[in-house]
Amino acid sequence: MTAEHPMDPIYFADDRLDRITETLVRMNGHLECLRVTLANLAETAQDHEDRVRSIERWKHTLTPILATGTFLLGATFSIALEKFL
Q1: Predicted confidence (pLDDT) per residue in 30-62, tens digit
Q2: Where do the H-state alpha helices sit in 1-85?
Q3: Could you tell me the pTM of the whole model?
Q4: 3-state DSSP call for residue 2?
Q5: Distance CA 54, CA 50 (A)
Q6: Residue 6 has what DSSP assignment?
Q7: Which residues are CB-neighbours of 14 under 8 A, at least 6 positions away?
Q8: Residues 11, 3: contact at Cβ < 8 Å?
Q9: Which of 14, 28, 30, 31 has most Cβ atoms within 10 angstroms of its Cβ?
């Protein structure tokens, strides 16, 4: 038996179930989209954190080298300036 008449209670129940099912399918799609977006966001955040750590390592490695280079350039410039004056 199929419910075809709009006043039939079974028709209302079937219609309500159809709308609930459609809503659940849409929600499932939105939740899947959200899951993918959050996974991409977590991956991007991890990549950013890795890059920041890499930059910090380079900074700590280069600091003594730059300090030494700056000192040598300053000393060389001071000696050259004394010789020309």
Answers
A1: 999 999 999 999 999 999 999 999 999 998 888
A2: 9-84
A3: 0.56
A4: coil
A5: 6
A6: T
A7: 3
A8: yes
A9: 14
